[in-house]
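so the lab meeting is tmrw and i was supposed to have these ready like two days ago... anyway. pasting both below. for each one the top line is the aa sequence and the line under it is the structure tokens. i havent really looked at them closely yet so no promises
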Amino acid sequence: MAAVMLTAVLSSCDQGKPGVDTANPETGLCHAVVTPEEFDASSEPSPPVPCAEPHTTQTFQVTTMPEPLAKQEARPNQQQLKAAGKRLCTSEDLRAYLSASSRDGTIGLAITSYFPDRDAWAAGSRAVRCDVAVTDHHGTPQEIGLDLKDALAGPHSAAVRLCYRQEYKDGILSDDGTDVPCSEPHTAEDVSAWIAQDASLATPAGREARCLPYALEFLGTEKLPAGVGVQPIIRTVGTAGTVRCAVASARQPAPGEAPELVTGTLAPQRVAVTGGAGKNG
């Protein structure tokens, strides 16, 4: 999954804004964090906003600072706090909150962590707030109006699903493609099965055969539905090649016609797997 930690230049914003409680964060709340300094601060005290309104982060988990840092009378410095946050706020926890299955590929999700300000720490709070942001291709968090709780099981998951937009030139569709959210026009949709390329994957037929079981699992069917096909993507970095299994519309374009670009997802809606309620550090 393309979930990464926010790692902008460490700011000096170690202290929360006066008058706003950072001691008792809550899972599921959304926040309109505005500046880069606030994104990377150790404490983030902005009041929550409705998740249906524009916001930049959502708290997917609340946990507690583990020992030995939790026993410190003085609040740890920002580097210590953020290092702890990377261990406590994990992509596995985020995927549980999103109700992600093993075949759900995601794009543009960034994890960051927030802690009690100095006053709350001195008063005994050791809460850790784990937030997720939807980012652009530069990693900059973007305003959204989507509640991410169980998002991958619901009808609006395209905004965070990984799709590919392939180029069409001289009557040929490129093997590779640009990573895009499925809410943007695309030619293929990732099914979260990436396979190191070898001799068995040298032909289109070999790639499709290897990817077919993953595609069927993604679609929740025993055979491909009408109008849907397996369309693997080949991604090469240096000399290493990876086949990214994907599905796409199986409609054959007319001669000289580019394949259609589609928006949305082929993933079926399913019952959400509730997660992200919190845990002990």
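ok protien two:
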Amino acid sequence: MSRPLPAVLSCLALLAAPPAGADPRRDADRTFPPWQGGANAPARDKGLEFTVHEADNLADFHGDLTNARLILYVGGNYFFAMAPLVAAFEALHPKLVGLIYYETIPPGLLVRQMRADGRITVGNMTWTAKPDAYLAGLGAVERLVREGDLVGPAIPYVTNQLTIMVPKGNPAKVTGLADLARPGLRLAMPNPEFEGVARQIKAALRKAGGEELVRSVYETKVAEGTTTLTRMHHRQTPVWLMQGRADAGVTWLSEAVFQAEANLPTERVDIPADLNETGVYAGAAVKNAAHPEEARAWLDFLRGAEARAIFTRYGFKTYSADGTPDRN
């Protein structure tokens, strides 16, 4: 079981370090994803490398579909951890090296793609990637098992909590959730329509200020234009903060930890435990998956020691059935 560690450590070092000579305050490309120097591109033969950070950039689609033997739909909330996870998994399953493809768009959008037989269009490109496993919040996975899209049982593996992400230096002086109702404070907030984290955010807002705070952030400020709803908060929130388009946004803690490790000009304002919410991450194989054995191997891997060490690095905690009552 120790074989993956060199690959994992190499990948983690690459994720944490900015490109040589880069300064995110001066280098405009550092504002835009991908932020990981190619570490999240698992294809071995990359051919022509063409990325224009602001214009031509498929940051949430990873790998080579040509001969893929494992296709994963991963809720985008840990896109940054996928490179070391894939490296560790490939070390355990060398026959799958370079044959893993994965997507990290929001879980609700992944469901729409799954129900469109894996068909998706981004810009002028359309392709089909039928998933073998789907990974998102435990409640969403259990629901999809009941609805027949996934094969149960749902497999939970880690938990996460919320934080407030702000630009470096916190120029708006945000101190907590109650501040998010402040007139004129510009927010980037996940869209409840397809971003599952919005459920936990609303619950935390309710703890901090009741329904009035929820309405202020998600209704009044939306109508006023001072809350902008994202389509993929794990990418848009930090970009908007770095561009000066937003003053704050609630994200998963793990995303703020990654931003700090990548030396990007954001920081976080912690939410007290009594106001915070816990999300449980889970997965299941997709019904009629083309690669069911590989899907099961991935789900087993996520509960193992190698995956646990990687998740812990980014602030996740190991799932405990009796310690995580929130199942959304």
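from a quick look at the 2nd one: The first strand starts at residue 61 and ends at 62. The radius of gyration is 19 Å. will dig more after coffe
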